[in-house]
């Protein structure tokens, strides 16, 4: 059996199709791309639709499959080709008088197109985060309710809850569908100064996991806010760091 490459990540896509019994569909999709029946954005969208676990992932895949990305890319290409033609005319006929519509605003139009594309790309990976899922890490001192919050959101006892401090030593993750968004929620070891060797390793893993998170959710005992802030301050971006003095214990901010 020959596998026809049709898109980035084709082996992963074909493996998913086998799981769902859709290998024939994947092969036909590959042939359609090679025959010009589908462009690569639509083919990738079909694969994303097969893998979608949440409503918003499906909505994004359907919009892309119906041409949302292709229309934007084709529009940029058409504008770029038109600008290149005008620029070539200016270069090739520099010693001749050209119509005003060829020369006027050429550099501004190039700059506008570049800014538009840059703005589109500089979206903080929103599409990727929606497709792959958000990574949320719960941080805080021991016994402030991190594991209880995880269990409540997961609607099951995924993490051990105990009055004993330092119960969670490793990162405990659950996958959730929150309002249509795919989310990986991670419970971590409590952060405190007087920790033993095993707890310190758990704290290192917690902070390492937080460095790779899209959102850090900090829980704190209002009576120990300064202690909690000292442990997580370096995890908070500059905007929230500047607002720190205005945030009262118990305030929810993201």
Structural description of this entry:
The protein has 254 residues and is of the alpha/beta class. It folds into 3 domains: 57 residues, no CATH class; 42 residues, no CATH class; 114 residues, Rossmann fold. 53% of the residues lie in helices and 10% in strands. The protein is built from 12 helices and 4 strands; from the N terminus they run H-H-H-H-H-H-H-H-E-H-E-E-H-E-H-H. It has a 4-stranded mixed β-sheet with strand order 2-3-1-4, with helices on both faces. A hairpin with a 2-residue loop joins strand 2 and strand 3. Helix 5 packs antiparallel against helix 7. The two termini are 51 Å apart.
Structural class: alpha/beta
CATH homologous superfamily of the largest domain - what is it? P-loop containing nucleotide triphosphate hydrolases
Architecture (CATH level 2) name of the largest domain: 3-Layer(aba) Sandwich
Which strand order do you get reading across the main beta sheet?
2-3-1-4
Count of distinct structural domains: 3
- Radius of gyration over all CA atoms, rounded: 26 Å
CATH topology of the largest domain: Rossmann fold
Beta-strand proportion: 5-15%
N-C termini distance: 51 Å
Envelope shape: elongated
Low-confidence stretches: 1-8, 14-23, 238-254
Please report the total strand number as a whole number. Answer: 4
Q: Please, how many helices?
A: 12
- Which whole number gives the mean pLDDT? 76
Largest sheet: 4 strands, mixed
């Amino acid at each position: 059996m020959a596998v026809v490459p049709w898109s980035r990540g084709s082996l992963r896509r074909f493996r998913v199709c086998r799981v769902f019994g859709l290998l024939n569909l994947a092969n036909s999709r590959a042939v359609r791309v090679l025959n010009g029946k589908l462009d690569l954005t639509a083919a990738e969208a079909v694969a994303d639709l097969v893998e979608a676990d949440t409503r918003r992932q499906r909505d994004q895949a359907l919009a892309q499959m119906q041409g949302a990305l292709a229309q934007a890319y084709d529009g940029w290409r058409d504008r770029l080709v038109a600008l290149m033609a005008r620029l070539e005319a200016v270069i090739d006929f520099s010693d001749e008088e050209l119509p005003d519509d060829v020369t006027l605003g050429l550099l501004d139009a190039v700059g506008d197109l570049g800014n538009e594309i840059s703005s589109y790309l500089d979206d903080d990976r929103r599409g990727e985060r929606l497709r792959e899922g958000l990574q949320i890490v719960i941080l805080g001192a021991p016994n402030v309710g991190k594991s209880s919050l995880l269990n409540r959101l997961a609607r099951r006892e995924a993490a051990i809850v105990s009055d004993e401090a330092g119960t969670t030593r490793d990162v405990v993750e659950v996958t959730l569908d929150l309002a249509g968004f795919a989310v990986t929620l991670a419970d971590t070891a409590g952060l405190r100064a007087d920790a033993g060797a095993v707890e310190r390793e758990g704290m290192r893993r917690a902070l390492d996991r937080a460095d790779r998170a899209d959102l850090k959710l900090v829980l704190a005992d209002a009576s120990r806010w300064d202690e909690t802030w000292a442990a997580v301050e370096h995890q908070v971006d500059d905007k929230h760091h500047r607002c720190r003095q205005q945030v009262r214990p118990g305030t929810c901010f993201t």
